[in-house]
Design goal:
Blueprint: H1 2-38, H2 42-55, H3 60-73, H4 78-88, H5 93-105, H6 109-122, H7 127-142, E1 152-163, E2 184-200, E3 203-216, E4 224-238, E5 241-254, E6 257-274, E7 277-290, E8 304-318, E9 321-332, E10 341-354, E11 358-371, E12 383-396, E13 401-414, E14 421-433
Antiparallel strand pairs: 1-2, 1-14, 2-3, 3-4, 4-5, 5-6, 6-7, 7-8, 8-9, 9-10, 10-11, 11-12, 12-13, 13-14
Helix pairs in contact: 1-2, 2-3, 3-4, 3-5, 4-5, 5-6, 6-7
Length: about 425
């Protein structure tokens, strides 16, 4: 037994020493590479970054810096390496900027404009965004057709879902009691478009429109149509700190009848701490007017306001794993007291970058709602505890098309029988970006 423990201790110490040695080697190669890159000794920098990648083959930072070195040398591999860096972190403004520079050198101005636009969107108010804006201004002046950088974006998706318990509309708000334990297939169509009409110094403003439409196979009386118009403005207070404001107006129809309309305002502060760490602090006020109909005769009892305040963190975990976590406190008022509640919501997301341009996302969420007043179903105060778990897999088919599969489970534990339910949703969708 003593021999076994001694051998086990030796293995653990050996593994720890080896892991530390690999980490030290990676750090040394990266330090050398960055120094050589700054001194414009690009071939030496390339060699150092390749050595760093030998230690960590899927490391985003090493891949990006190798791409930068090759880009400066105008090497034939530059495009593929930079695209690899973008795949490892699609939201990295530096990878987008370097790809834009690569295409600009090759006089492929349409691609360069698109990547420069992305830099401005991802890193407003930063030095990198200012450099991208200058490049865009130059491109606008040189392009014979006079076309300016694209200010609009369109996202579309179409898919199929199986819902084991058709009780919720698209934003998660439950129907009034009595609509439960019904399963059905449905087709989905989603459209969203945005136009950026102001890009000046540190200010950005855009307007948008979105449409959600579900079409059920059997339960056509529960087909849902949701439309939203939005206005978004932002101001970069300083590098890495952006103040944003959003206003939206939404309409919801169920079975062709108007279900509700909502006004929302949401100010927020976004803080980029570098190296993939981001923090968002937000407040949201929603004022919703619910409409009575033949199907939902007492729907207007829910009319009122909802206040939500919270914080969201984005956290890099490894080269191919990132996380997002958040907490919010909610308080709702209504015409009838039994629709009023206070609650807490917490979530944790893990995102994995897998081989063959596949991304996986695991989502978990816990929601507590404590309602006021005597509930008409139970005669007591209602308490809900909802747990949501989901897994999605997304395969990138091209720079503009994705296909996704997701499976979600919801378990709402309520002390009122009518609101105690379990639910599973299976989805398959095709998404496009234009």
């Amino acid at each position: 037994m003593r021999v076994f423990l001694t051998f086990l201790t030796f293995l653990i110490l050996s593994f720890t020493f080896t892991a530390n040695a690999f980490a030290a080697a990676y750090d040394e190669f990266m330090t050398i590479g960055k120094a050589k890159l700054e001194d414009k000794q690009y071939s030496f920098a390339e060699s150092a970054f390749r050595s760093a990648l030998n230690e960590r083959p899927d490391d985003h930072e090493a891949t990006l810096h190798l791409g930068i070195a090759l880009n400066r040398m105008e090497g034939s591999e530059a495009e593929s390496i930079l695209k690899r860096a973008l795949y490892l972190d699609p939201e990295d403004p530096r990878a987008n900027f370097e790809l834009a520079i690569h295409y600009l050198k090759r006089s492929i101005k349409a691609e360069a404009r698109e990547f420069f636009d992305t830099v401005v969107r991802l890193a407003p108010g930063t030095e990198l965004a200012e450099r991208a804006e200058k490049q865009l201004d130059e491109i606008r002046g040189k392009v014979a057709s006079g076309k300016a950088a694209r200010r609009w974006a369109i996202l579309t998706s179409a898919g199929l879902q199986y819902d084991s318990n058709v009780i919720l509309i698209s934003d998660g708000a439950p129907f009034p009691g009595g609509v439960s334990r019904k399963s059905d297939w449905r087709g989905l169509f989603c459209f969203s478009g945005a136009y950026s009409f102001l890009r000046k110094d540190k200010f950005r403003s855009s307007v948008g429109y979105s449409l959600y439409q579900s079409i059920h196979k059997d339960l056509s009386e529960y087909n849902v149509n949701v439309q939203n118009a939005t206005f978004v403005g932002s101001y970069a207070i300083r590098n890495g700190v952006t103040l944003k404001g959003l206003y939206s107006f939404g309409l919801t129809y169920i079975g062709g009848d108007q279900y509700s309309y909502t006004h929302k305002i949401s100010p927020s502060i976004e803080i980029s701490e570098g190296n993939g760490f981001d923090t968002t602090i937000f407040y949201r006020l929603g004022d919703t007017n619910f409409q009575d109909s033949n199907r939902f005769s007492n729907n207007s009892d829910r009319t009122g306001s909802t206040h939500v305040g919270g914080i969201i963190w984005k956290i890099p975990i490894a080269s191919d794993i990132s996380g997002e976590a958040g907490y919010s406190y909610e308080a709702a008022s209504a015409r009838k007291q039994y629709w009023e509640y206070k609650g807490d919501r917490g979530f944790l997301d893990l995102l994995f970058k897998l081989p063959r341009d596949v991304a996986a996302k695991i989502h978990s969420e816990y929601l507590r709602k404590d309602y006021k007043g005597s509930n008409p179903f139970s005669g007591g105060e209602r308490e809900d505890r909802a747990l949501t778990l989901s897994l999605s897999l997304t395969k990138r088919l091209s720079t503009r098309m994705d296909v996704s599969f997701s499976q979600a489970f919801v378990d709402n534990d309520s002390n009122v029988k009518e609101y105690d339910y379990k639910r599973s949703i299976s989805s398959l969708s095709l998404k496009g970006r234009f």
